[in-house]
Amino acid sequence: MNERNGFSIPGIPFVLACLALAALGAWLVITAGEAIWHLAAGVVVLGLAGFALKGFFQVAPNEGQVLQLFGKYAGTARAEGLRWTNPFYSKQRLSLRVRNFESGKLKVNDSDGNPIEIAAVVVWQVFDSAEAVFCVDDYENFVHIQSESALRQMAQSYPYDARDEGLPALRSHGEAINDHLRDEIQARLQKAGVQVIEARISHLAYAQEIAQAMLQRQQAGAIVAARERIVEGAVGMVGMALERLRAQGVVQLDEERKAAMVSNLLVVLCGDRSTQPVVNAGTLYH
After folding, report:
1. How far is CA 141 from CA 97, 124, 238, in A?
2. What pLDDT, in 10s, does the model give residues 232-256?
3. Alpha-carbon torsion 248, 250, 251, 253, what sign?
4. SS3 assignment, position 279
């Protein structure tokens, strides 16, 4: 079922028509005297004027009125202001404004089997009022439940942290993950006449039972990376020192003394704590 334009006309001119009809009915009643048919005509005209008032309704900006005739969909009125339509139509107000909600924190397993907590913010809007009203029972509840279902499905498709370079992960590839999440939600909400404008992860963390272990693993990875950088720099500095000593002829060292000097420099440059200098009062060999 697709939305179509429902019958409605501007209400202000029809207000004047209803007033004129009511005035005519009142005049017929007042001037009826003993003429029964005259009185009956006035009552009928007043009744028609009163019944016509049932056709008035208001449409606010970014809002629609879904019209039904004895249960059959008759169209949607989106024109703003005071409108008039068939008095037999039943009317249901529907907001077409942009709305958003934040899902609760879901506990799911990522693609590696690690339990994680994840939540998302979804920005959505009704674009087809007929499908929103008639294709699902409660479109707002439908949006919330299907969005959380899509979020759970998406989280199970990616690891929390990428182990292989270039593979998407929940923590490191935000834009790709958000695009995938939006597409997943849109595919589920299409039948409800809802358009997903944006979907973004608002909370992402390991579950409490493994958070400490994963934090230690991340700390270990950071320490190893830092050590690699320190050792790489220390080796370069030692090589530069030996090269300058040789080039400037400051001292001549054999291979054994070079190895001892390299060892001492690496201890100084790579150590966690500050080193204590030792002054050699003898010779290099004693």
Report:
1. 16, 13, 67
2. 887 888 788 777 777 777 777 667 7
3. negative
4. coil
pLDDT in tens, 195-215: 999 999 999 988 877 666 667
* Torsion, Cα of 154, 159, 165, 166 (10° steps): 0
pLDDT digits (tens, 9 = 90+) for 87-139: 999 999 999 999 999 988 999 988 888 888 999 999 999 999 999 999 998 99
Measured between alpha carbons, how far is 278 from 127 in angstroms, rounded to an integer?
79
The structural domains of the chain, with segments of one domain joined by +, span: 9-92, 99-206, 211-270
Tell whether the torsion through CA atoms of 94, 99, 104 and 106 is positive or negative.
positive
Residue 15 φ/ψ, nearest 5 degrees: -60, -45
Task: Name the CATH architecture for the domain at 99-206.
Answer: 2-Layer Sandwich (3.30)
d(CA 10, CA 12): 6
Q: What span, in angstroms and rounded, lies between the C-alpha atoms of 156 and 275? A: 50
67: left (phi over 0), alpha (psi -120 to 50) or beta: beta
Amino acid type, 280 = N
Q: What are phi and psi of 35, to 5 degrees?
A: -80, 105
Q: Which residues pair with 67 in a beta bridge?
A: 75, 91
Sign of CA dihedral 11, 12, 16, 19: positive
